[in-house]
Amino acid sequence: xxxxxxxxxxxxxxxxxxxxxxxxxxxxxxxxxxxxxxxxxxxxxxxxxxxxxxxxxxxxxxxxxxxxxxxxxxxxxxxxxxxxxxxxxxxxxxxxxxxxxxxxxxxxxxxxxxxxxxxxxxxxxxxxxxxxxxxxxxxxxxxxxxxxxxxxxxxxxxxxxxxxxxxxxxxxxxxxxxxxxxxxxxxxxxxxxxxxxxxxxxxxxxxxxxxxxxxxxxxxxxxxxxxxxxxxxxxxxxxxxxxxxxxxxxxxxxxxxxxxxxxxxxxxxxxxxxxxxxxxxxxxxxxxxxxxxxxxxxxxxxxxxxxxxxxxxxxxxxxxxxxxxxxxxxxxxxxxxxxxxxxxxxxxxxxxxxxxxxxxx
Length: 361
Hints:
globular, about 75% helix, Growth Hormone, Chain: A
C-alpha cells in the first residue's frame, strides 16, 4: 500500500533538550502499559456475565449490549478524539483518556445497579476512544526513526491486555472477591499508568496541539484505504470471536470451543510484518477454511485468522504516523471509526450470513 510519506528533513531539531535514552525506554514501556490498560477494562467483563445475569437481572440482550457498547463507543468517539488531539495535543489526550478509563472502571461496579454499570461503561469507552487516535501522533513525535517499533510495542500491549483480562478475571478476581471487585480492580493499574504517564513521558513540541484539521477528508482515497484496511482486519477478528462458540456447538464439537478461542487470541502474539496482501489473502483463506472444513480442523483455521487479522491490525496502526503531523490525528480518527464500526457490526453480519446460508444446521 503506497502512502505519501512525510519528510522530516526540512524540520530543524533541538538536540540539546531532547529526552534521554533511559527516558525514551521508559516511554516505550508506558506505551505498552497504556495498550494493556485500554483492553483489560473491556475483556474483564465477559467472565462476569453469568453473575451479572443473576445479581442485576440482566437479560441476554442487555449483556450483549454491555460487551459491545465499548466497541461502538470506540468507533463513535474516534473522530471527536481526533479533535481533542488536534486541540490539546496527543500526550494530554492520552492522559484524558486514561483518566476516563480509570474513573469509569472504578465506578461501574461501585453500586449494585445496572444503570450505574452501563453509565460508567460509557465513560470508560469514551476514554479509550479519546486515547487511541493519539498513539500514531506520539509514535511520530517521540520515535520518528522507529515509528514501526513504537507502534508494535503499543499493539503488543493491546493484545497482551486481552489475554491478561481473559485469563485472570475469573480465577483471581471474580471467584475470591465477587463481581464488583472484578470490575473495579482494573481502575487501579489505569490510575497508576496515568500518574507515570504525566511524570515520565516527554512534553515535546511534536506531541503538542497542531491546530490542524480534525474532520476526515471524505474525498481522500488514501484515507479511505487506511480505514478499509482496518475495517477488514476488525471484521475478521471480531466476527470470528463472536461466532466460534455457536458454530462449533452447532457442529457438535463442544470440546473444541475453549481450544479454538484460545488459539485465535494467542496467535495474535506472533505479529510478524508480512506484506498486506499476504495478511488479506490469509484472512480470506482462514475464514473460508473455517466455514467449509471439518470441525476437527477449526483450531487451525481460527489460529490462522487470528494471526493474519492481528498482523493487518498492527501494520494499519502505523500507517497514519507516516503522514504529515497535521494529518495524523484525523486519519487515525477515521481509521478507528471504520475499524471499530466494522467490529461492532461484524458479529451481526456473521449471524445474518449464518441464517441466510444455513451452513451449520
